[in-house]
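User: Please predict structures.

Assistant: First:
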Amino acid sequence: MANQEQIALLSQGVEVWNEWRTDNLKVPINLSGANLAGLDLCTINLHKAILNGINLSSANLSQANLCEVSLWKANLRGAILDKANLKDANLIEADLCTASFRKANLYNVNLYKADLSQANLCRAYLYRADLSEASLSQVNLSEAYLCEANLNKADLSGADLEGANFEGADLLNIRFDSDTKWSSIGSWNNARGIPQEWMDGSSQEDEVPQRVDGAIVPDVSSDVASNSVLLAD
């Protein structure tokens, strides 16, 4: 259950919350089940917070620090998480329909069975992300960095994969259809389970760039509590 004192503090605004958080880094944060739908939480520091089942639908979480948070079965439908830092976050079975993660850091994030239908993950950093059995129908993954990501049994029907990097990714048993845009995938070197249809229609050469063109790979060993922009504009 959500800590009501923390809910009251949060109601005073992000600036007040972040100042308190800086002085109380060791205090556990639990906002599970809280209704924060539609709030402007841009740049908020929720590092390691427990947010299971929280309602953050249509909330603005752009550039937020969500490293190592637990958002199990959370509702983030339509939320804005552009340039947010979700390194090592747990989003198992979360509702992320139509949410925007443009240029977000999703390193090693757990999105098992999450619903990302129609979400915007353009140029997002998804290195080693677990997207197994996730719904990615009509998702925008253009120029996303998915090296070593797990997409086993993911649904990519109608997804935009143009320019995405799938090097070393697990593509076993993925689902896709005639509306899936895969013809200009940046790379799938060393990926497992590449669909035969993709290989038959591919114009890829043996030598493919190691990263998404124009994207800067974040230094994931840096201080995870920072709210710095992780990908270039």
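Second:
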Amino acid sequence: MNNSHQLYIHSPSIQLEYLCFGEGEKTLVCFHGFGQNLMVFKDLSLMLSNYQVVSLNLFFHGKSDRKGGLKYLYQKEWKTIFDGFLHHLKIDRFSILGYSLGGRYTTSTLKSFEECIDHCILIAPDGIVKRSSYEFATFPLGSEQIFGFFMRNPKPFFTFLTLLEKTKLFNQWTIDFSRAQLQDKDQRMRVYHSWITLRKFRIRLAELIDKINSGTFQTTVIFGQYDKIIQPKRHFYFLNQIPKAKVIILDTGHTKLLNESFVKVSDVLKKA
């Protein structure tokens, strides 16, 4: 396949940008985290000579877009979009990997395509347990509008962050990270559109646990011990309920976790 950026045009209002690395017999479909792009999996592809790594840009990243239609992305819509994407690339079986926000895409894909999946890899996956900041920002009764106002008007937003800092409701790392990441207008609007659109885009925890335990695919879950965004300690219940899965805790935080996971990912896929 052509190792240059490609577009899958699902409809006049929906498109996915993707890139295929390598020409291995097996396929690994990858979803990056918020604010990243499909190039983050290039180094991983160099470790997987037997795989073709198909890396997608999430909606509102790069040229991947979803305009019009329903406000929220639902499972049924994603199933139709991704089914078309698989047919577009003539993919019958594949493994799947998602990091951070990409974890929502991964688990939602698992829900509809588990019979086609060989290995599911979740790296600090978002959407497994609820996060207070996300739930507040996307709660439909008023706070969603407040969130949108703040993303368009940064001065009140940063004042609000200072007030939050004083309440001690959110850890300091998250507040400092928000200040650093949301200085740019385009980045703030990417946050807004991504968070709001994906508010209902998640699989129920009980259903995910059941699929992992009863499915024929293998599962690997990787967390960073010092991750302040997707904290492993908040996922203990989930991890205790999936004895079939391989669980790896690395000695790192959120931002470095993806790259530091590549060796582990390569190891588990080579043994698959």
